[in-house]
Amino acid sequence: MTLQEKLFSLRDEKYATFSAKLIPTVEPDRFIGVRSPQLRALAKEMKDSAEFFLSALPHRYHEENMLHAYLLCGGKKYETVVEETERFLPYVDNWAVCDSLAPRVFARHKAELLPRIELWMAAEHEYTVRFGIGTLMRYYLDADFRPEQLQWVAAISREEYYIRMMQAWYFATALAKQWEATLPVISTLPDWVRRKSIQKACESFRVPQVHKSILRAT
Question: Residue 41 belongs to what domain range?
Answer without folding.
Answer: 1-105
